[in-house]
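Quality-control log, excerpt.
Job 1 of 2 completed; input and output follow.
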Amino acid sequence: MTILAVEIRRFDPQTASDAEWRALNALNNILEAEAFPDDPPEKLESTIKYVRDIPAYVDSRRWHAWQGDEIVGRGLFSVWSPNDNRHIADFWIGVRPDMRRQGIARRLLAPIVAAAEQEQRRLLVTWNNDRVPASDSFLQRLGAHMGLETHTNQLLIADVDHDQLRAWQERAKERAPEFHLGFWEGAHPEELIPAMIEARKGMNLAPIGSIEWEDHITTPEELREQDAARARRGIIRWTMYVREGDSGPIAGYTEVFWDPQYPERLWQEETTVLPPYRNRGLGRWIKAAMLEKVIRERPQIRYVRTGNADSNAPMLKINYDLGYKPYMAERVWQVETTQVRAYAGPGAA
């Protein structure tokens, strides 16, 4: 069999042809099937929306490895905020299983490290999972340091203890009678944006291991851009929060995201309670109230997934008590840009 040469090309989501999108969708489905073997294939429409509809403040660049009319590898470079963490950029590389160990990942690193140097990013951060053991070897050869161990945890709706959900909510109301729940669907209400910016600072307290992330302070513009990007993708966001009285600070919140194209799956994203309000059952209250609402109003959902640092004992306690179980182990790595340059080669660009 003749092996065709592999060509690395920059991908432009705004000008990509139908054939390019189909090739990317095909590769995505091969790689995602390794990580999430229980999930349905990603629809072509979802691939296009996910790649195109990102917030304006995100600088995202993509390169693909082509063999004939197929994409056999993908590389992504992203800078998420112009206001902080200006020493870091994120990157991801994925190569089709049958094309691994042929130098494709190294070649995809070349434009990524060039972008990091252009943006003066000292560190590159990436994630991998235990479903693709070869990625550990690649990152170790690269000289990367594994700085944080995490898991995707999964809750089967059929396993939920409904009596426990009610008990958690009643108990919290007894312990914190001056607090009440609030809820919205979709974009942040303008009048709540200042309070939510303060509440989101609680996420900076989540464990980060030895990864050199700085605290991130969300801006109103970022919230609006995030909301607009998700709306363009057709993703529905629910937010449940708890606050003192009718107008006091937001003490904590939780949010979930649902894509109607994949009706059986729900992603549980950020949950936090600010330090002055902890140890009153507020975290259990908002999580239980949200889950009860999901079960009542979205009966098509069969399972919920969330990501947690293995060292985040308080949140893991809540999630495991709810019935979440480990689904996939993941790790966060960081590497000096100079080490990536040495690995990719001095002339690589």
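Job 2 of 2 completed; input and output follow.
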Amino acid sequence: MVLRFVASVLIVSGVLLLADAGLTLAWQEPISAYRASLDQSRLGHELDNQLSSARRDKRLTASITDVKRRIKRLAELDKKRSKQGQAMGRIEIPSLGRRYVFVQGTDIDSLRKGPGHYPATPFPGQGGTIGIAGHRTTYGAPFRSIDKLDPGEHIILKMPYGELDYKVEKRQIVSPNASWITNRVPGAERLVLSACHPLYSASQRIVVFARLVNARVT
């Protein structure tokens, strides 16, 4: 009787493990995905709580009539309050049907919550190159499909202080230590999205490069 019970438990466990593996291959790891969904919900509330500070900043900068200069100043003020792992804004990729809260930081704990902003890069609206990284197979897999982003498609960053629209220029596969991707380049502000490549491997990185085409204070 005991042996039959143990055998049944092992069979059920084996089926569950196979199901988990199948879900991971087909889409994403389900346990970490559930945890990420809870984190995303909490981060959404955290972001909403930042709106009062953003409204105060907008009043302080109301005399700046040039939109680009005003957003840059608003970004500077927001950056001063930013902390590791804290909600920064929302990233939307309309062509992929994706929308996530992204956080400050690309350490392990931060990326478990959602896409993470490279702390050494500027805030959206400050100019230069903004970097955001994300997982492709675990913790909600926010960047799983960025290999399908084509030139001309849009990436929108909704910050507490404004909305910034970037148009994709190209995709590129690079080595894991290609730090040059976040270098400042001439021209309009640039956004780079990065993730491990290929799926289920960290041997390379896939990078999407986009340029700012429109910005407004919201």
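Post-run check on job 2. The radius of gyration is 20 Å.
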